[in-house]
């Protein structure tokens, strides 16, 4: 039985990857950041909380990382832990750099010292492309990150490549474009949109306030993307791969799709901070722009080219954006109907 160590196991991807690996017969060790209460709602939602061996883990603490690697002796390590919110990284750049950048050096160094034959996956991101150098981004596109998060992740990407080239470790950097699901954190734009529309439908919210509606993202379903992570670590030779759908839409488009999935037919009027979204049936203004949600620097357009992953991993995204929006809205409505507070 193979042993996998998943850091960030209580996050969106950690939950889906745990389920995938358990279904494949792995022994799954879930490394989580200790807090006053265990926030394992995602594992419970997937019904897998009792099948994972949870182990406290902190990317800031080298001694803890060494002990965890020594105790688990994993065959595969998936490093999904991070301060993953781009907006927050502008307010917490040093912390973000320490966790998302140096944390990866700590983890790689611990693996090199204690279990160098373990295979390693690093959760890299399309945010590393940032200010667009090429209209479609692939593994060979130059990087130009636009946030402290993107900068920290770029360090993590290169240290992952460097440990492969310097020490012969089996290290892989998965450059993943945005992927969403009903388990997405509620501050990220897709889930903020679906959860707010669901709460509106149930009379719990009046309005959806957003920042930049023009940003374009390549959004896929997280359940598809964790399968790509696993496929990367099954390759004899480690390499780096983009996972993406190849389709890009604006935040406004996603608002329209999620609104439709919730029974709202939205028309947009006005421009910039004065733009509003009106429900055609009721005439009510449901969506407003709030400048507080704009970022100091924005990534305007992301669209990935997943052809290397298709050719070498036989991986492709399986879920359309329409289906994804519908799945997320439905899950939020169902959770409200069960009396849950959305988180
Ligand atoms: P989440 O934010 O849902 O999960 C990240 C997890 O990391 C959280 O459980 C968090 O713990 C944990 N964590 C944060 N800081 C530390 C720390 N110092 N030590 C240990 N654990 C820590 O992210 P996702 O699941 O969405 O993403 C997984 C990874 O993939 C992240 O690294 C993200 O940056 C990257 N990524 C995500 C993409 C996406 O679209 N989802 C796209 C590309 C890359 P806590 O619950 O305590 O906060
Ligand atoms: P992103 O995701 O920054 O791409 O990072 P997010 O959903 O936060 O933003 C996407 C785009 O939407 C715009 N936007 C808003 N964003 C949020 N969160 N809230 C708003 O109200 C809002 N209004 C408009 C943003 O400006 C942005 O352009 C995600 C994270 O999962 C990262 O960890 C990951 O690396 C990347 O995806 C790929």
UniProtKB/TrEMBL annotation:
<protein>
    <recommendedName>
        <fullName>GDP-mannose 4,6-dehydratase</fullName>
        <ecNumber>4.2.1.47</ecNumber>
    </recommendedName>
</protein>
<dbReference type="InterPro" id="IPR036291">
    <property type="entry name" value="NAD(P)-bd_dom_sf"/>
</dbReference>
<dbReference type="InterPro" id="IPR006368">
    <property type="entry name" value="GDP_Man_deHydtase"/>
</dbReference>
<keyword id="KW-0521">NADP</keyword>
<dbReference type="Pfam" id="PF16363">
    <property type="entry name" value="GDP_Man_Dehyd"/>
</dbReference>
<feature type="domain" description="NAD(P)-binding">
    <location>
        <begin position="5"/>
        <end position="328"/>
    </location>
</feature>
<dbReference type="GO" id="GO:0070401">
    <property type="term" value="F:NADP+ binding"/>
</dbReference>
<dbReference type="InterPro" id="IPR016040">
    <property type="entry name" value="NAD(P)-bd_dom"/>
</dbReference>
<dbReference type="GO" id="GO:0008446">
    <property type="term" value="F:GDP-mannose 4,6-dehydratase activity"/>
</dbReference>
<dbReference type="GO" id="GO:0042351">
    <property type="term" value="P:'de novo' GDP-L-fucose biosynthetic process"/>
</dbReference>
<comment type="function">
    <text>Catalyzes the conversion of GDP-D-mannose to GDP-4-dehydro-6-deoxy-D-mannose.</text>
</comment>
<keyword id="KW-0456">Lyase</keyword>
<comment type="similarity">
    <text>Belongs to the NAD(P)-dependent epimerase/dehydratase family. GDP-mannose 4,6-dehydratase subfamily.</text>
</comment>
<keyword id="KW-0536">Nodulation</keyword>
